[in-house]
Design brief:
The protein is of the alpha+beta class and 191 residues long. The chain contains 9 helices and 8 strands. The chain has 2 domains: 141 residues, Jelly Rolls; 45 residues, no CATH class. The strands form 2 sheets. It has a 4-stranded antiparallel β-sheet with strand order 1-8-3-6. Strands 2-7-4-5 form a 4-stranded antiparallel β-sheet. A hairpin with a 5-residue loop joins strand 4 and strand 5. The protein is globular, with a radius of gyration of 17 Å. It starts with a helix and ends with a helix. It comes from Elizabethkingia bruuniana.
């Protein structure tokens, strides 16, 4: 399972044999079944996850008790409630498996040790967190400026497999609409 992670890392930075061994020792493989809450709201996120296979989502409950999906991720990607993980403070979000998943996970302590031992891991970690910040800024801008149909078309262009693996109610919530609106947009697009 570590091969995919090491491959992703070495696309950005060079790793020595020792650094590859540290990576394998620091990231713990886990198998998660479909519809499992991996990290619960109200608690400090324990892990940063690398997705080897499967789909996950981050969601919170709004004031009406409805689930609002704020993030959907697939391989190869990292996922956690970043702010809460980095600062080790309780999150108001849940991390849930949408499908069966194969993951690699690392604690904050182990990540810090890896970064302290290796400039390559430090550089890679900074790039991952910068991408997360950039992604969230772009997502906020798109939710504010794109129409619902434009958001849907962008999603299926950039992540075509999401429709085959993620329930429509999660996709609708992620796109900032209700399932009926998404259904109407999908029918219009198909025509």
């Amino acid at each position: 399972m570590h091969i995919q992670l090491i491959h992703l890392i070495t696309q950005r930075v060079n790793l020595s044999t020792q650094e590859r061994e540290w990576c394998a020792a620091s990231f713990e493989p886990v198998s998660i079944t479909k519809n499992t809450i991996i990290e619960k709201a109200g608690k400090v996120p324990e892990y940063l996850y690398f997705i080897v296979s499967g789909y996950l989502r981050i969601f919170h409950l709004n004031e009406k008790g409805e689930e609002i999906t704020t993030h959907i991720n697939c391989p190869p990607g990292f996922i956690t409630s970043y702010f809460n993980y980095i600062n080790q403070v309780p999150s108001d979000e849940n991390l849930e498996s949408i499908t069966d998943c194969q993951l690699l996970r690392i604690t904050k302590t182990n990540l810090e040790e890896l970064i302290d031992k290796s400039a390559a891991f430090k550089d890679f970690s900074i790039s991952v967190f910068q991408e997360s910040i950039s992604y969230n800024e772009n997502r906020s801008r798109e939710l504010a400026t794109l129409t619902a149909e434009q958001r849907y078309l962008k999603l299926i262009k950039e992540y075509p497999y999401i429709l085959q693996n993620v329930p429509l109610q999660y996709i609708a919530s992620f796109l900032g609409m209700n399932p009926k609106s998404l259904s109407r947009i999908r029918k219009q697009v198909i025509r």
